[in-house]
Amino acid sequence: MIAAIDIGGTKIAGGLVDADGTLHHRVERPTRRQAAGAGEVFATVAEVVADLAADPRWTRVERVGVGSAGPVDIGKGTVSPVNIAAWRDFPLVAEVRALPQVAGAPVALGGDAVAMTAAEHWRGAARGFANALCLVVSTGVGAGLVLDGRVYAGPTGNAGHLGHITVDLDGEPCPCGSRGCLERMASGTAIAGWAVAQGWRPPADGATAAAVADSARAGDAVALAAFDRAARALAAGIAATATLVELDVAVLGGGVLRAGELLLEPLRRHLRSYATLPFTRHLAVRAAELGTDAGLIGAAALALH
Ligand SMILES: [Zn+2]
């Protein structure tokens, strides 16, 4: 049994995952984003571990896997999540190992997109593929790589971070310091922002990618163009990756994928014009299968493999 922890800006989840990748027990608490100190944020992690340890199966736990919002540094065991201001170079691995219930057991750390990649490769849409790119398209765009059958995280754990490769040379400045980043064109935030800038009128409850998707389904030309533009940017990024490392499959998950074929249909179409070399043309595009459990199953995969 593996204890899995999934740390995001909104919630901190925990689960017990067996060696087959089945999630047996799940707990969740809100992240104290407004907390004054790093220790206060970590107190929620400690509570989640205590919740898990109350389960009788905890006695079979031999290792712990942690997936966290990034950036992470798996070499140092630290995290600096953009959405959790109190944690900068926070020594998450050492703190989790020091919890009385964990008692020094091995703790593996990964970024959330790499964890999702590990989960989809183990139990989801990338299963059986030796070379995969898995993307999380939500308020940002994260991604991870499987190469030669193994998750490739890189020295600090951030390899495959496709959201911050440039797909538009003269594009908008990005908070990362670069410009024309894929995330600035394909995230849910970018889809809604571009649609508004082009004259789309959002509903009263806000300009979200889900609302743009509703308008696109109703035939709104700007909303359809917003998804087409995002799909085109994703296609350029995926094609570049396929050309760089030779991919068998691209798997897409995250909240924006609730739009389904509104995004996937133009993505496959644009991929045909960007992934043109013979060794890239067979690339399959699939929707992720594990949904919100991917973070926990992936954290367990990182601990096990
Ligand atoms: Zn960027």
Number of strands: 12
End-to-end distance, in Å?
13 Å
Write out the strand line-up for the largest beta sheet, numbering strands in chain order.
3-2-1-4-7
**Helix amount, in percent?**
25-40%
Main sheet summary: 5 strands, mixed
**C-alpha geometry:** globular
- The Cα radius of gyration reads 19 Å
DSSP strand (E) fraction? Answer: 15-25%
Question: Could you give a short description of this structure?
Answer:
By secondary structure, the protein is of the alpha/beta class. The chain is built from nine helices and twelve strands.
Describe what you observe in this structure.
The protein has 305 residues and is of the alpha/beta class. Helix content is 35%, strand content 20%. The protein has nine helices and twelve strands. It has a five-stranded mixed sheet with strand order 3-2-1-4-7, sandwiched between helices. Strands 10-9-8-11-12 form a five-stranded mixed sheet, with helices on both faces. Strands 5-6 form a two-stranded antiparallel sheet. Helix 5 (188-197) packs across helix 7 (221-245). It is globular, with a radius of gyration of 19 Å. It starts with a strand and ends with a helix. The chain binds zinc ion. The site of zinc ion (ZN) has 6 residues, from loops.
Q: What is the secondary structure topology, with strand pairs?
A:
Layout: E1 2-7, E2 11-17, E3 23-30, H1 38-53, E4 63-68, E5 72-73, E6 78-79, H2 92-97, E7 107-111, H3 112-123, E8 132-137, E9 141-147, E10 150-152, H4 183-186, H5 188-197, H6 209-217, H7 221-245, E11 249-253, H8 261-274, E12 284-287, H9 294-304
Parallel strand pairs: 1-4, 4-7, 8-11, 11-12
Antiparallel strand pairs: 1-2, 2-3, 5-6, 8-9, 9-10
